Amino acid sequence: MIPVKEVMTRNVITFREDTPLDEVAATLLSKHITGAPVVSGGGHVVGIISETDVFSKKGKVARDIMSPRVISVTEDTGIDEAARLLIGERIRRVPVIRGGKMVGLLSRSDVLEFFAKTRWTCNVCGWWERSLEKPARCYSCSSADLHLERADPGH
Known about the structure:
By secondary structure, this protein is α/β, with parallel strands linked by helices. The protein has helices at 21-31, 51-56, 62-65, 79-88, 108-117, and strands at residues 15-16, 35-39, 45-50, 73-74, 93-98, 101-107, 118-122, 128-129, 146-150. The chain is elongated and about 60 Å long.
């Protein structure tokens, strides 16, 4: 199992509950992101705000339009489990929480980057496959001796 802490974004853009909507919109646009967590003064995640919230809901500050339903994971959650959560809940990002505070963010693009840049390779025959979780056996020779490697070792 590959834990989320190996893949998550650590330098997370967040908004305070009282961040004006024009600032939210400008930040999302300038940073090329589709949403971000909203945090309280104590650093706890209290909501998620997305680009869709900005242009489809009425309000003056982040608290007025954010989604208060926050689905989160821990640093030790497996990337495969987190990916199933993102897809199953139809969400684009999940805060990564330790001791009640956010320590990172895992987005669909983080999962996609991991998938695209790594592969499970058989130590016996060299066969490989891309997967978020370790295959039980090599498809080619049935060996269980597989390791995770960067898919583009020369780059």
